[in-house]
Hints:
Helices cover 51% and strands 16% of the residues. The chain has 385 residues and is of the alpha+beta class. Helix 3 (70-83) packs across helix 6 (233-268), helix 4 (85-105) packs antiparallel against helix 5 (108-119) and helix 6 (233-268) runs antiparallel to helix 7 (280-308). The model has no long low-confidence stretch (mean pLDDT 97).
Amino acid sequence: MDLYANEQLLGPEERSVRDAVRQFVKAEFMPLVRRHHREGTFPIEIAPRLAALGVFGAHLKGYGCAGLGAVSCGLIMQELERGDSGLRSFASVQSSLCMTAIHQFGTEAHKQEWLPRLAKAERFACFGLTEPDFGSNPSGMRTTAREVNGGYVLNGTKMWITNGSIADVAVVWAKTGPGADSIRGFLVRKGTPGFSARDIHGKFSMRASITSDLVLEDVRVDEGDLLPASNGLKSALACLNQARYGIIWGVIGAARACFEEALDYAKTRVQFSRPIAGHQLVQEKLVRMATEITKAELLALRLASLKDGGQVRPAQISLAKMNNVEIALDVARMARDIMGANGILDDYQTIRHLLNLETVKTYEGTHNIHLLVVGQALTGIGAFD
């Protein structure tokens, strides 16, 4: 499908990283995913083997992390999501959200305690920002951190938290005062009195992923559990932009998986005395799919170059997240259409990707919120508070 020879834009190390993760996903994850999707569970037992590939904290240097370039990190996420969005989300929360928060805003003691263990999958982490009433507007959060002698008391509820019930530590964002500028990050350890996680059931999307509510009822944390360099909502959003970068690459993997499955199906499915790949309407869909995937890859590669050069801006990330998720969802829908009734069976992977991508379009900034971020960059006028 490499119509524009995008493969030539990758270096030897980048190809090596991609191929290693692709082989892992094919050999060790794909035989498990249908059962876990059906049961609404996640195969946590594969995490140490993923860690051995350097997946967790791959963008960070030191503390047992791989320190890879932006393209290699993107390709890791691409190959994980080629398997399932839940697998990429698991790694993204561990790495892009939580390890980034600790690395960027924590003390040296925090980094020494947590980063090597998270990189080796000896410990797991989750990121508590979204609340039941505050998703697109996290500045309105109600979770509070009241300063007391030698520490803080946290109260509030977080929702839609990936890895919540398996996390050994939660990066929880809370207001220490009345405004968004007072938001700080805290490390809340599993087992702390008043802190609990409850899994969310009944999902039709991201089923092979652990999603939880976090409840904090007079949770006392020491002053040393504050991420001291965190300073306002912008600190949490910096972590989100790292995770969104992974999504931009990840959904290309999901789109590729759907395209390849639909192409193979179209070549072997015979109707009206010929494979359906020979029909004009099917070819039109395949060409649209291939075109959009090619464009998404070029967009991701350019963004990687800006990121490695320290020039990336939030609006650029928003544009790519908005575009690439939308085209991945369109590709999945066209693939399902090509496959007809068989496209709704979990004997195939397309319907699973299609369902997952409905969530990916919504989380870490909805399509419309990212659209407005880009609109503000173009006009200089904010269309939301």
